[in-house]
Amino acid sequence: MTCPTSPLLDQAQARWTALGTATPDLAPAIALQRAFVNRTIETVDRLQQLDKPVLELEPGLAATKLRASTPALRGEVLELPVDLLGPLVFQACDDLASGGAGEVAQRVRNCLDAGRIDISSLLTASFERNQAAIRVKATHEGIAPDVLWLAAELAVGPAAHVAQQTVFAPRGEQLASTLTGALDAWPHGYCPACGSWPAFAEDLDAVSFLRCSFCGLQWHLNFAGCTYCGNDPAQLSSASIATGSPHRAQLCRGCGAYLKRLTVTSPTPFELLPIEDLASTDLDILAAEQGFGRPSLPDLDGPERYPCENVKSTR
Length: 315
Ligand SMILES: [Zn+2]
Ligand SMILES: [Zn+2]
Description:
This protein is of the alpha+beta class. It has 11 helices and 6 strands. It has helices at residues 7-22, 27-48, 59-67, 82-113, 119-127, 131-141, 145-168, 177-184, 273-279, 281-289, 311-314, and strands at residues 198-204, 207-212, 218-220, 236-239, 248-252, 258-263. It has a 6-stranded mixed sheet with strand order 3-2-1-6-5-4, with helices on one face. Strand 1 (198-204) and strand 2 (207-212) form a beta hairpin. Helix 1 packs antiparallel against helix 2 (27-48). The structure holds zinc ion (2 copies). One zinc ion is lined by residues 191, 193-194, 196, 212, 214-215, 217.
């Protein structure tokens, strides 16, 4: 179990308490989220203590990839600690089963228990953001693709976070100027580390950052158009829950997607991003009521795809 004195856990508890008091309807979602966030805090801690990094990437190569619009972690050789991450997929299924997904999640768990999905390739496919492979495999097995995708994502997200930190925030080292420059110049709405869309943007003083929904990377929002389709700012409008509210939803008439813009006093730690996402649910509802949605993962054409099959059964 996570150390009860973990500052992150204390911060999470305080946030949940405030959120549950302000919005009692969120109690079931908070209860489910507690399990996930607690495990994420613990897993990041354990991953940071591993001798072998999840991946190794030279700053110069990372910068070259960014300048070619390729997320830095894409296509790299991974050393995912399956013994550590694999059980998290099973636990995520259990939590989803008891948290409202019921039999649907239980069927995914049963499929995993039966060994019909190779956990290592599932984790790799999730890390690579290969939703198509996971969807095909789930459909083939007759289980819910969204549940399998979510369970794998919850398990491997901490590894993606630790991996992007080794590239973009190396401990005790200055980030190479070539990589800083390439990151600052990144002109896309998808994450320069893993290629996912942001969970939301954080507006901090006069600067805006996007926060990756998967690996948690923070990068400058350095263009005025739509985060998703790149349409010009004239296509964008804003909606907020109440006049004067610091948080808002940025709506794009071009692609029909929205981005939450949250005003913060400091960047949210990776482990606590889901809490702020949940805390701003009213903006999701507001955007949905106006006909806007969150887009599916960007299709970045590659790298090579993994079939997510149970390799043991084919040997
Ligand atoms: Zn990312
Ligand atoms: Zn758009």
